Amino acid sequence: MTLTSTPLSKGDSEKNYPIWITGAEALMDSLKVHGVKVIFGYPGGAILPIYDAVHKAENDGWLKHYMVRHEQGGSHAADGYARSTGEVGVCFGTSGPGATNLVTGIATAQMDSVPLVVVTGQVPRPAIGTDAFQETDIFGITLPIVKHSWVVRDPSDIAKVVSEAFFIASSGRPGPVLIDIPKDVGQEFFNYERILPGEIIPKGFKRNGEINGSDINQAIKLIQESSRPLLYVGGGAISSGAHEEVETLANNYQIPVTTTLMGKGVFDERDDLSVGMLGMHGTAYANFAVTECDLLIAVGARFDDRVTGKLDTFAPSAKVIHIDIDPAEVNKNRRVDVAIVSDVAKALSKINEKSFINKTCNTKNWLEKINFWKNKHPLFVPPQEGEIYPQEVLLKVREFSPEAYITTDVGQHQMWAAQYLRNAPRRWISSAGLGTMGFGLPAAMGVKAALPNKEVICIAGDASVLMNIQELGTLSQYGLNIKLVIINNRWQGMVRQWQESFYDERYSSSDMSCGEPDFVKLAESFGVKGFLISERKQLLNEFKSALDFDGPALINVRVRRGENCYPMVPPGKSNAQMVGYVNSKS
Predict the structure, then answer these.
(1) C-beta separation of 443 from 83 below 8 A
(2) Domain at 12-192: CATH architecture
(3) Would you kindly state where each structural domain of the chain is located, as residue ranges?
(4) Are the C-beta atoms of 81 and 55 separated by less than 8 Å?
(5) Within a 10 A sphere around the Cβ of 299, how many other Cβ atoms?
(6) Domain 390-558 class?
(7) CA 569 – CA 42 distance, rounded (Å)
(8) What residues pair up with 553 in beta bridges, in sequence order?
(9) Closest Cα partner for 61 from 10, 112, 121?
(10) What is the mean pLDDT of residues 3-7?
(11) Rounded average pLDDT over 49-58
């Protein structure tokens, strides 16, 4: 007798369970009950049973699957989806090279605390450990870069594993998890029973407990005693959705706010209290502020090296309050005076509630000093002459598309975008911790898939964009209305800047001019509209129409080749020892 499955359909919520289906169908139903509507992936032999179930799910109308052109693109797209929505992103890849191609995207998400559920196909159970065709131990390979992982050896475990995966990925400090499913597990029939979200709490995990009231009181006391406080806000505040709480605390006590690259958008950078981004390529006034503050309030930040510079000179005279959900980050790089291990939004809310009782903090002189720094050392203002300055392009993006969701690749263009753009919460999406070239374009696909009615712009470099340029095919296939703006200086720009500054201008393997494609023709070969802007009059007159084009487009902007990104904190120096922060021509 031949067994056939009973496919789950639109009316499956009314079915009685258990139901006789395959492991692959159970996986798809488990994803459905956890709210998954979008998946990014690429098929292959070991994951074909799951893709057969994907086909049924799409026919049933509850799922949209985006076939990317490379598995790395799928992982970054799921990452962009998660960052822009706060939901868990999902991507698929097959065994062997399909799975290993996902590794960079998984590591990117781990470093930036992004919730992903990554599903990989695996060779059948009897073949595991035999060096079968396209077999790799993706479970072992990814152990250092995931929160948790599973190899599913029994289809009856699928519902439980998926429930645990979504809980772990999104709880506490978010991050990626991996589910490896052998091919025969996806094909095997069994009696499936649903497990709904929240029904299972994985062992070792617990709900967040109460915040220690004495820690809150100590934090408030330090704030009230401070005359030069500074809020240092990182990506944990974005993950927590704490932008309103940060704004309230800043306004209550008139505390200036600086953000990390990951924290951009959590506080309105047009506000007088904003001092922009700090660190290696932060504003001069942010770096001076952190050097001279007497109280540093670290909110969802981890004191990473690109922020602190020489660690023992970072906020050298300041007491430190550290608010973070991850206890492993507290006292890891910097000893603190008050530690509040909690969801950031909840902790700030408690501080704000108690602050109304006895609010005292005189920061008038401190704010005047910061305004003096802002006026003396503003960001570079490009002159309207000669070749196009890369900074000009970002200023035009800011002018023409102030509400856009921005993704970036990695390099000089990323730092210029961070310096000059002003972003609302979750509208700044950039690989910060891992610094992954090629991140921007596929991440923009994820944002657009999540938010089809929002404007999405990817800021890329001519070197970075080539890492995942094949995803133009995905834009074309699905009509994803994304604008890919290439800041094209025909260099690996940041590498060249370091070679100029620290390696006596020995430009080893960083010149991209030889072999550069015609980006406009390349885009059009994929069915994507291409624009070339090489003169200032085009930037002034044609750039906006290119951004307004109805459909996916690549905009190649040729800029000055030798422009450097300043300010810059040289390696091994304190944040106050910046170079290039005087407002003058480079």
Answers:
(1) yes
(2) 3-Layer(aba) Sandwich (3.40)
(3) 12-192, 213-376, 390-558
(4) no
(5) 28
(6) alpha beta
(7) 41
(8) 483, 529
(9) 10
(10) 41
(11) 98
In angstroms, the CA 333 to CA 449 distance is: 38
How far from 322 is each of 227, 334, 343, CA to CA, in Å? 18, 10, 12
Which residues on neighbouring strands pair with residue 299, listed in sequence order? 233, 323
Q: Do domains 213-376 and 390-558 have the same CATH topology?
A: yes
Q: In whole angstroms, give the CA distance from residue 459 to residue 449.
A: 18
CB 70 within 8 A of CB 92: no
Cis upstream peptide for 18 (omega within 30°) = yes
Residue 555 sits at φ, ψ, to 5 deg, of: -120, 105
The pLDDT score that the predictor gives to residue 3 is 34
How many CA atoms within 13 Å lie on the side-chain side of 19? 20
Q: Is the dihedral of CA 71, 72, 78, 80 positive or negative?
A: negative
pLDDT by residue (tens digit) across 366-383? 999 999 999 999 999 999
The Cα 322–Cα 334 span in angstroms is 10
First to last CA, the chain: 78
CATH architecture of 213-376: 3-Layer(aba) Sandwich (3.40)
- CA distance linking residue 28 with residue 51, whole number of Å: 10
Instruction: Give dist(CA 368, CA 379) in Å, integer.
Output: 18
Residue 7's pLDDT is what?
A: 45
**Percentages of the chain per state (helix, strand, coil), in multiples of 5:** 40, 15, 40
CB of 87 closer than 8 Å to CB of 81:
yes
C-alpha to C-alpha distance for 519 and 466, rounded to whole angstroms: 10
- Six token digits for residue 223: 């704030």
3-state SS track over 169-213 = HHCCCCCEEEEEEEHHHHHCEEEECCCCCCCCCCCCCCCCCCCCH
Q: Would you please indicate which residues are annotated as catalytic (active-site) residues?
A: 71, 133-134, 183, 494
C-beta neighbour count of 438 within 10 angstroms = 27
105 touches 79 (CB < 8 A)? yes
At 383 the three-state DSSP class reads coil
